[in-house]
Design brief:
heterodimer; A: 17 helices; B: two-stranded antiparallel sheet; disordered N terminus
Chain lengths: 313, 317
């Protein structure tokens, strides 16, 4: 870890003039930092621009399109998004005047993401336990089948799944939206199985000699010991579900179950022709991003450190 | 454990259960746990069968039928596939998606590799990595809308900069030649940091002593990069490439939110075309048949990946 900084630039630095010789990597490092800073700026600054736009008035955006501060500061866009603005005020500020209620979408998104995450993580943990800690005939074959589903593109199963949900008369219900996700995700099973395989067996075997049954071992030994990876998995699953668009678009197009991502798309298409409601749209975008931003602010390290692993997804 | 990204899931997990030591130690227990295993696996199995196995079979079946949701599917044999072969819109969607995938591979991998090397050299802090990862945590819809605003022809900030630079404004979403590159740029923006982190994790797993030996032997930085870094990074790069290709082939969200296939057919990517055929035109058989073709393309990509990864797996072990 620590030796990497000294590995490459030396020969080049040696050729530099005397001023930089005292700290040989200076120029190189400065160049590298500049590029890195540029990449960070490209990654982060757009969010500030969205924030600035959300606090602007539509009319002023056109004339002050490059000012760094909000153009004609107002929180009207946020009120509009949450349906707190009268249609007349909304139209006056450049909105479409159509009813839009992001409180409802926010609630739906939270319900959808929470249920699917809780279900998928818990049931996947159970399955992972069976795949990692129990010995039974056909175990590896079944596990390979489960893994194989990671290769099936979601669009392929989405069409028949839509038909199934439709036949069950569950279109535009929360149940219909969560069903395909709530039982498991192949990635979750794979992820947790890896951890369970590497857990020490001693405690488990001691408990077994004491006559503990598998259910107790699972709840009292395996789950608590895997609390950290389970938390990471839950975090990743929640963010993934929060960002899900295609399936909720197919199954939950009506207002009562519409989630934020779908609501955003609808809001965008509602924008009056000619002059889109940019500040409203950006306020809505920010509202949709906020929960993930908060999670990231709190659990950033956990998420960042999981990337090497979750890349397998 | 968390960062062992070079471990290929499929290849590794197949070898895993063989562990002879463990099984012998497990001899303490009853011979098999089939009953209790069935209990533990039951919920996942329900989901697996209902929402993965059955729909896969049903999807293949539907591709041989004509079905408009009302009534019953009617078996038409290979008619859908024959029609697809002669469908200019399908070939267009394939070409458009191909361009998109290609741009993503080149842009994303090159930028991510550069970023990973920079991080490896000057900044390993979680803060830097976190900042670069931020776009990836946002949904496709958010990424699309954010850039839809920033790239707006009239008052988007990017076009302001372009004008200040003395260049003509660009209709990023509105012109046929720019529409797909713009979609690819949005996707690259969202994935760049994530991919860089994957490669960075791969860089971290290269044993340091190799670099020290190379330095003692008087290898130049470029030689070290070519002879040590690149070969040992290959499994990670192949993995990254495959994740990128498979992911980009299924582009939908950003297109659906911004250009909806247009202008003309410039962004009618495969998945969007499937969506239109199945849900807008209620032609489920035809949509399923295109989905089967997409599935086959992705399976082919995955197959090539397996071959590549197997050949590379021993590099680090």
């Amino acid at each position: 870890m620590t030796t990497t900084t000294s590995r490459a630039p030396q020969p080049a630095a040696a050729r530099r003039p005397a001023t930089t010789r005292r700290r040989p990597f200076n120029a190189r490092r400065a160049g590298a930092w500049t590029l890195l800073a540029l990449a960070i700026a490209v990654s982060v600054l757009p969010f500030l621009w969205v924030f600035r736009t959300a606090l602007s008035t539509n009319g002023a955006l056109a004339t002050q399109s490059a000012s760094l501060l909000p153009a004609d500061f107002t929180v009207g866009a946020f009120m509009r998004v949450f349906g707190l603005q009268s249609p007349a005020d909304a139209v006056a500020e450049g909105g479409s005047g159509a009813a839009i209620d992001f409180w409802l979408y926010l609630r739906n998104s939270i319900i959808f993401s929470s249920i699917t995450t809780a279900g998928a993580v818990f049931f996947s943990a159970m399955a992972a336990y069976a795949f990692a800690r129990l010995r039974w005939k056909g175990r590896n074959a079944v596990f390979s089948l489960f893994l194989g589903t990671m290769l099936v593109p979601p669009i392929f199963t989405a069409l028949p799944n839509f038909l199934l949900i439709k036949n069950l008369d569950l279109l535009n219900t929360m149940l219909g939206m969560v069903l395909p996700y709530v039982f498991m995700t192949p990635f979750a099973i794979f992820f947790l199985r890896q951890f369970f395989l590497n857990m020490s067996r001693e405690v488990e075997e001691a408990a077994m000699l004491d006559g503990a049954k598998h259910l107790r071992i699972f709840f009292q030994i395996v789950l608590p010991n895997a609390a950290a990876p389970i938390a990471t998995l839950a975090l990743l699953t929640f963010i993934g579900q929060w960002n899900e668009y295609f399936w909720p678009l197919l199954v939950g197009s009506q207002d009562e179950v519409r989630v934020l991502q779908v609501g955003l798309g609808v809001f965008k298409s509602q924008s009056p022709q000619g002059a889109p409601d940019w500040s409203g749209l950006m306020a809505a975008t920010l509202v949709s991003a906020l929960p993930v931003l908060v999670l990231f602010a709190v659990f950033g390290k956990k998420i960042v450190n999981s990337i090497g692993f979750s890349g397998i997804k | 454990m968390m960062t062992t990204l070079t471990k290929n899931p499929a290849a590794r997990s197949d070898q895993r259960p063989a562990r002879p030591g463990r099984i012998r130690r497990g001899g303490l227990r009853r011979y098999g746990d089939l009953k209790i295993a069935l209990f533990f696996i039951a919920p996942a199995m329900i989901g697996f069968v209902l929402f993965y196995v059955v729909p896969t079979i049903r999807g293949i079946y539907l591709s041989f039928t004509e079905y408009n949701i009302l009534g019953d599917p009617e078996w038409v044999g290979l008619d859908n596939y024959a029609a697809i072969a002669k469908d200019p819109l399908f070939w267009n969607s394939l070409a458009v998606t191909g361009q998109y995938v290609l741009m993503n591979i080149v842009l994303q991998t090159a930028l991510a590799l550069g970023l990973a090397l920079l991080m490896d050299r000057v900044a390993k802090s979680t803060l830097v990595r976190g900042a670069l990862l931020l776009p990836y945590l946002m949904s496709n819809v958010i990424a699309a809308l954010l850039w839809f605003w920033m790239l707006d022809y009239q008052i988007g900030i990017v076009n302001q900069f372009i004008e200040w630079a003395g260049l003509p404004r660009v209709a990023f979403f509105g012109s046929e030649e720019w529409a797909i590159p713009t979609q690819a740029l949005i996707n690259t923006w969202r994935h760049m940091g994530y991919t860089a982190l994957l490669i960075f994790a791969g860089l971290q797993s290269i044993p340091q002593h190799l670099y020290e030996v190379a330095k003692l032997d008087g290898a130049s930085p470029f030689q070290t990069f070519r002879k040590i870094t690149m070969p040992l990074l290959r499994p990670v790069l192949v993995l990254v490439l495959v994740v990128t290709v498979i992911g980009s082939f299924q582009v939908f969200d950003t297109v659906a939110v911004t250009t909806q296939g247009g202008p003309v057919n410039a962004t009618r990517v495969i998945q969007y075309y499937i969506y239109q055929r199945a849900f807008t035109e209620s032609d489920f058989g035809y949509g399923s048949a295109i989905a089967v073709i997409l599935f086959l393309i992705l399976a082919l990509v995955a197959f090539i990946q397996m071959k590549f990864l197997k050949g590379n797996e021993s590099d680090l072990d």
